[in-house]
Amino acid sequence: MRARRDAAIRLLKTMLVASIVLPAGLFSYAAWTTNRDAFAHADEQLSATLDIMSEQANKVFQSVDLSFASVRAIVGTMSDDEIRASEQTLHLKLRELDTALNTIDALALVDKDGLALVSSSVFPAPRDLNIANRDYFQAQVERDAGTFIGAVVKPIVRPDLLFGVSRRRAPQNGEFSGVIAIFVMPKIFSEFYDKMARGTDASFSLVKSDGTILARYPAPPGNVTRFESNSGFMNTLNSWPEGGIVDIVSIDGLKRRVGYRKLGYTDLYVSDGIPTSAIRAEWLGAISAHLIFGIPATLFLFMLVLLTMRRTQEFYAEAERRDLAEQALRQAQKMEAVGQLTGGVAHDFNNLLTIIIGNLGIAKRGVVEARAERALDNALTGAQRAAQLTQRLLAFSRRQPLNPHAIDINKLLTGMSDLLTRSLGETVQLETIGGAGVWNIEVDTSEMESTLLNLALNARDAMPEGGKLTIETSNAYLDEEYCRHHDGLTPGQYVLIAVTDNGSGMPPETVEKAFEPFFTTKEAGKGTGLGLSQVYGFMKQSGGHIKIYSEIGEGTTIKLYFPRHDGDDAIVAPDDDSVSHRGNGETILVVEDDDGVRQYASEILRDLNYQILEARDATTAMRLVDADKPFDLLLTDVVLPGKNGRELATEIEKRRPGIKVIFMTGYSRNAIVHHGRLDRSTELITKPLIEGVLARKIRQVLDGPAPAKPRD
Ligand code: ADP
Ligand code: MG
Q1: What is 587-703's CATH number, 3.30.1330.40, 3.90.1300.10, 1.10.10.10, 3.40.50.2300?
Q2: pTM for this one?
């Protein structure tokens, strides 16, 4: 079951992990693809915008080209002097051209020294205006630079920014003869870009390949006029001159994804950028849609699996508890069965012993010869030892009548210490630790003593090299959880007696079997295997509990738990032997089904000066009562054929109130013994019957007060 539980829990744990990992994985994948999509979408947008920008820029520069061609056509091969001469005509023509093309701000013809010859905007052209230091002029002086586009400048006379575009004039006498300059307002571009931006953080630029900015939206911060040659944008542009896409920090400090493209026209580029944050916002929007459903669903799944796991754990814990309880029950049932068997055998054996011992006793009295007497003595001793053995068996079978009293266990231990020390021998040291304020318990004193002696002897056997035996007493509480695992145990206050040795210890198999009668690991003749079984029977009968803790090589602790007794603490006074135990001619009715036992009992009682009436069962006894035969005491066996001894006594008590009764028993069933304990007012004598004991008991009852009221 443990393996099955572990497998189930492992599976659930895997599911628990999967319920988080799988959705997380799916989500990561979705996040990745949406991210990719967002950038792909941005790139498409960039490319579409670049189309529009190129279109516009191409148109502007086409009209610039067209203007150059027109100016050349107008001027033809005129010399500077000729031009000056017809300046007015030319001015008008140029102005016509200028006005026709709204992309162009102004046109001018400049001589080789940088002096204006004709201008579309002013007539006459200012003679002192020298543009020799302007980039669009200087670029053409040394060599034909084709169409050259200059940097943006602020003209002195006008508010609007301009950049100049120049081309060489037709050479005169094979030499540089000046340029045609066309002025374009960057505004044409930036206003167009402004419209495209529609208030977003997008950026648009028109740039020369050397990084010079011709137009930009938004306007570059401060007086920045070019991209630094080592900037990320310029590096990319130099590496992939035809066009591309790059993620950079723009000059205004914003992170952007920037697309750029080379124009068909000379070395110009258009570029546009979308803020990375905008792309990310689009991406986040997409994934948050996934998350809104994904997170609650994932959590729900997770909680569901977690709940299932908890339930499964509880289920297995419960099953395990039941399993343990069942095991305990099975063990108890097994012991019970063995007990019944042992009890039955012992009962019959007891009757036989009664006959043997009794008759040996009688025979002894009639024998004088010394040898025969010794033989009888030996036989008697043997039979008495056999009687002790049956006591042990009966204790185990829990049918031994107990005579429990309230006792102080610490006092009992003090009284026993001599006996224990002697039994343990010289090599074993005894330590008794009596807990302070230990509660009283209610047990049969002699059984308690024999239990402790049994445990001490076992400990001694486990410590052949010597060692230490500790007997410790304390108050204890057994809780519900513990009792659930131990069949028939009720939670509550107990007195604990722990007997600990540091001997050989026992393997688990031995622990399991130690209580079984006749189980012993000791060599033949050394162990009977009845010690612990007797202890076990006694513990059960006393409502207590016994537990073995043992470890090989370390030692053994045997714990005895007795229920707390909280009645009065009276300890019964020992019998006084000085009193005479003979009869005064009183009549005793002896009821016993075993002929041998009845005859034996009658014989001793007659010897003790009693009158005897005999009956072999309840019917015969009642006949004597009906015949009004007088008697002072009923001595009856408990187990009789037909009506039992208890019922017989009740019947007779009705007819003869106050009659005194003694029960005889090998073991006593519930008729007189409640749960194996004596009915407080019941007088009981156990078989085998011993002459002295019987005599004393009868005297005690006859001399005692009459029973206060009929039992029951
Ligand atoms: P016996 O002592 O006659 O063998 P018990 O019923 O008293 O029978 O004990 C049964 C068995 O339990 C012993 O044979 C021994 O193996 C084991 N045992 C009992 N007490 C101890 C102990 N204190 N240390 C080690 N083994 C023990
Ligand atoms: Mg023993």
Answers
A1: 3.40.50.2300
A2: 0.47
